[in-house]
């Protein structure tokens, strides 16, 4: 464990807690993409399949349970909670996210480190996580009025992957055999997708005006 | 392999 990875995990934890807090306290999910949340639930479900077979550390297992629990409860809130579901703008959140799942699955069947069931699904979860934010970014551009909690959620989510890139550089420099191109490229693509959001987020923060993404 | 593996990452 290094400081970059810890910072990344804490930022990731903060992003899901910010979202859960928003949905639970104001009983609204306006501006949140259910598609992105469903993709994240699939990402965690396929990434943490080894939670029962391989134990690494208390921290590792605890965080996996928190991420699984939070992502599925956010989906549950947005789909089934009587008050929250009414605030979900279904007409705007129209990204065909299943078109993201299939190519990621095919790519995982083609490019992976080992051709085993767990490894292919784990690789699939990496590819899917890289693109899971797309429905949310599209929704933000459509709804234009980004309330600061949703903006913070996306910002923290992008920041977590940015910290992970620093973690991979650190581990590559300090651990001789630590080379994982698939993880690195997927993580880099993911972080790049946030790049323009970060640019507009900082612009709005610097000029102290409402965050507006270009149409 | 676990040491150098990313499986210890979330």
TrEMBL record, chain A:
Pfam families: ER_lumen_recept (PF00810). It comes from the Eukaryota. It is a multi-pass membrane protein. InterPro entries: ER_ret_rcpt. The chain crosses the membrane at residues 55-77, 98-115, 121-140, 152-170, 182-202. It is found in: Endoplasmic reticulum membrane. Keywords: Endoplasmic reticulum, ER-Golgi transport, Membrane, Protein transport, Receptor, Transmembrane, Transmembrane helix, Transport. Belongs to the ERD2 family. This is ER lumen protein-retaining receptor. The lineage of its organism: Eukaryota, Viridiplantae, Streptophyta, Embryophyta, Tracheophyta. The gene is LOC104773136.
């Amino acid at each position: 464990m290094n400081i970059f990875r810890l910072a990344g995990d804490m930022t990731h934890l903060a992003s899901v807690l910010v979202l859960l807090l928003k949905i639970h306290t104001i009983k609204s999910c306006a501006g949140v993409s259910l598609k992105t949340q469903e993709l994240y639930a699939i990402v965690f479900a396929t990434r943490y399949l080894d939670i029962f077979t391989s134990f690494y550390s208390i921290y590792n297992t605890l965080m996996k349970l928190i991420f699984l629990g939070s992502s599925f409860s956010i989906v549950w809130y947005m789909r089934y909670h009587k008050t929250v579901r009414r605030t979900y703008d279904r007409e705007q959140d129209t990204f065909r996210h299943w078109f993201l799942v299939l190519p990621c699955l095919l790519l995982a069947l083609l490019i992976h480190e080992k051709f085993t069931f767990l490894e292919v699904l784990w690789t699939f979860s990496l590819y899917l996580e890289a693109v899971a934010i797309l429905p949310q970014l599209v929704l933000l551009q459509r709804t234009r009025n980004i309330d600061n909690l949703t903006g913070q959620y996306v910002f923290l989510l992008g920041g977590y992957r940015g910290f992970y890139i620093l973690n991979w550089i650190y581990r590559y420099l300090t651990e001789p055999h630590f080379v994982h191109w698939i993880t690195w490229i997927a993580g880099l693509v993911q972080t790049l997708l946030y790049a323009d959001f970060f640019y507009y987020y900082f612009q709005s923060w610097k000029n102290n005006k409402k965050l507006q993404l270009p149409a | 392999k676990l040491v150098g593996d990313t499986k210890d990452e979330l």
